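Field reference: "sequence" (input) and "structure" (output). Example, Imidazole glycerol phosphate synthase subunit HisH:
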Amino acid sequence: MAHRTVAVVDYGMGNLRSVSQAVIHAADGQGVEVLITSKPEEVYAAERVVLPGQGAMRDCMRELRDSGLQEAVLDAAARKPLMGVCVGMQMLLEHSEEQDTPGLGLIPGQVKRFQLQGRLQPDGSRYKVPQMGWNRVYQTRPHPVFAGVPDGSWYYFVHSYYTAPTDSAHRAAETEYGDRFTCAVARDNIFATQFHPEKSAAMGLALYRNFLHWKP
């Protein structure tokens, strides 16, 4: 295995193809090997780790546990760069309202469902859940993974739930859909986004490229 390896964790629930293709594209010419893996030993050995997620959080948590990969992800969270994407971000928190599901507890806070019934958007249309579309993302503090990314850049979202970290120090970016909410979290060697960088064109690739060089 190459010394500089990023493992994209395959526990059966991630948007693996698009995430891995984006990371491979970002890694081109960077001397980084991208490994899509369901083997805990390869996650333990990797220099850095990407945790994708798609679907219901309860299913994601169950599959992560049953696959034997949960301990390897917790090990990564303790000692090397870890990036969560979409439900991969929600899993990092303590608890989700989605089917009353406990998370990994790496970032204090809750995952909450949008409560937008009966509310209208500025154009007069109703807010829809899940939210599907492009939002401006506003950085709440500087972070190396946002290096060179203009504040207010557009990113692509698909979700019915959002994260509410307990400590404002863990909020890395916010956006607005009905209400303002946290769409990126960061703590020590952990960084995660609710939006999909792999579906967000050049600004998304910039995040993956920055993650590959991040030295927390």
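The helical segments are 16-27, 40-45, 57-66, 70-79, 87-90, 201-213.
The CA atoms of residues 146 and 207 lie 6 Å apart.
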